[in-house]
Amino acid sequence: MTHPVIILKKNEDKRLRNGHLWVFSNEIDCQRTPLESFATGSLANLCSADGKSLGTVYINPHALICARLLTRKTDQKLTRHFFQDRLAQALQLRESLFAKPFYRLVFGESDGLPGVVIDRFGDVIAVQITTAGIEENKAALLDALIALLNPRAIVLKNDASQRQLEGLSMEAELAFGELPNPVIIEENDAQFYIDIMHGQKTGWFYDHRSSRAELARFAKQHRVLDLFSYTGAWGIPAAKAGAMHVTSVDASESALALAQENARLNHVAEKMEFIHSDVFEFLKTARLNNERYSIIVLDPPALIKRKKDFKAGYEAYRRLNHLALQVLEKNGILISASCSFHLSKENLQELLRSSGRHIDRHLVFFNSGGQGPDHPIDPAIPESNYLKTFFCHVSSSL
After folding, report:
1. Is the confidence at residue 13, as pLDDT, over 90?
2. Domains of the chain
3. What is the mean pLDDT of the chain?
4. In what order do the strands lie in the sheet with 5-7?
């Protein structure tokens, strides 16, 4: 049986022909194909205004992004075979990049599976579904994962805020197998306990892997301040690499408790200090107490989640970087990151420049980083390129 057709307005096909996968509700010709006639999560054949086929999409008539392109083929069914092909393609890339099964296996649109994020933690798989189209077909997706990887457990970590925009329930559940306790992963020559069911996102952030390895390369004998430290992914490899002392600051008590366990797991607990605090308040107090650190890692959560939040979010990033520079030793290193797509690399560069000049310090970039290779960037989809990191050397004014 063929899928129903949904038609774009005139000239609204250019972005899709260039490789993007999203269709916005104001791009649909609702006179010819009313959005409300499509069921949430249903499949359709997308056509340009002149009737030419663009491929198969899934639909959510109630969402701003009302359709996402799955394939350039028409009448594609979301079978186990379809998902298994996409998963095998993603797996081939990761296995060529990593010696051990600890990585992001699927990064949504970049891996041809919009609405899906899958992290691999050895024989445990965490799946995050953010769209109704994938939710409708999750049984086939899970069957494909089981057939391909034979995991011990699969967790559906479906508590992301994006699900609310799609009208989906928020929950985390064990969908298959038995979850071991504890779950231990490996990254950058360190081991970490992770909390999949109750931790942020899927329980771990693989995206900064490369930048965290770069910090470990020069951390020896430094006094490190790790802000928004979560469970220790930056600080513990730095301590293992010879940092003199690492202070980890986070507002989450549960994250810090797990970070302490991770410090013990890696035999660096004696080098590490864990402080439960709001980062802004911690930095203000540290400045008043004349505390100084030779390396500061500033890796906050996304402070600009929507375009309309840009002004307030930009100011929050500016304040954080300004405060961090005030407690950095002269000839110190600031590692400043942003995972907000709406804060561009140029925005972050400019606020670092202005913050350095404001306190009369000479700030230069000696390295920069982005998301690791298990978060591949689709050049047709700017939204897939979200992470940016600057490694800054900060000295006295010239």
Report:
1. yes
2. 5-71 (2.30.130.10), 80-180 (3.30.750.80), 188-396 (3.40.50.150)
3. 96
4. 5-7, 43-47, 53-59, 65-71, 22-24
